[in-house]
Amino acid sequence: MSPIAIEDIREYGVFSFIGLLGGIFANSTGAGGGVVFIPLFNQLNFTEQQSIATSFAIQCFGMTAGAFTWWFHYHSKKT
Fold first, then answer.
1. What is the H or E stretch that residue 30 is in?
2. How many domains are contained in the chain?
């Protein structure tokens, strides 16, 4: 592994933790991940447009993953 990759993991690894925390909070409370992500975006000095666009991207990824999961579950039970 190159020294650049290790440094990137150290620098950006916290985002994986925050993403996991937001996902757990969103799924366990029903309040949504925005409760975690919007204050984080504010700390990162995102504009309102950047925060909304990033939130939509996160939501689209989650919905797509959920749709594929249900699709595969449905077909595994059907056959």
1. none
2. 1
Residue with tokens 């993953």: 65
Which residues form the domain of 24? 3-78
Per residue in 28-66, pLDDT (tens digit) is 887 777 787 888 888 889 999 998 898 888 888 888 988
d(CA 52, CA 38): 9
Residues 6+ away with beta carbon under 8 Å from 41? 50, 51, 54, 55
Using 50, 70 and 90 to split pLDDT, how confident is the model at 1?
Answer: low
Distance (Å, whole) CA 54 – CA 74? 30
Relative orientation angle of helices 34-43 and 48-78, to the nearest 10 degrees: 150
Residue 72, both tokens: 């595969």
Q: Contacts for 66-74 with beta carbons within 8 Å, 24 or more apart?
A: none
